[in-house]
Fold this protein.
Amino acid sequence: MNKLPQLFKSKVIIFIIQIALFSLFIFIFNYRASITFDADILQERSAIIQFFANYVIFSIEENGIFGIFFIFFSWTLISLFPIIIYKNYKKAWSMNLTTFFFPNFFFYVFYARYSQRNFDLVFSTYFLQTILLAFYIIGLSIGVSLILKNIFKEDQEIQVSNLKEVEAKAGSKCPYCGTEFDSIPKYCYKCSKEIHPDNNEVK
């Protein structure tokens, strides 16, 4: 039973879950980033570049506001997973940036290598999108993590307070010798007198 939480805290498992969820969103919403390629690029290579572009690129001219909404909404949802799992903003934004880095790296490497003319034309625009989205993910990870930390901290303080109240109510005192107990015993272990359960008086 203890292995399951540890399994979900693994960076590899979290990465797979995040990419799988994003792939599901792409399939459901039929999202396709608008990418132009050099005329001489092979179809297989353009398909690979397109695959990675769908995770990180939004084109206002082609997809309008939907492209921006889809990319930010999808990254928001998958970024919440490590935030909830770790409850630590450093681990959360580190994990989210790791996942974000993966499709970006392969997109830029393959696009620059196999479609360099078009890459040179749009690099500044795409790189600005990458920086903007990266800062958004960092801000989201830190902000939500700190909010959850404060919520859990308040819950823990309430639980501790309730436990102290229960502990105080459960205590008793021998009215004969003054010995204090954490519970309400029937007999005082010090003076051996019988204690009344209602008012702690000696019978």
Notes: The chain has two domains: 3-163, 171-203. The CA atoms of residues 35 and 50 lie 7 Å apart.
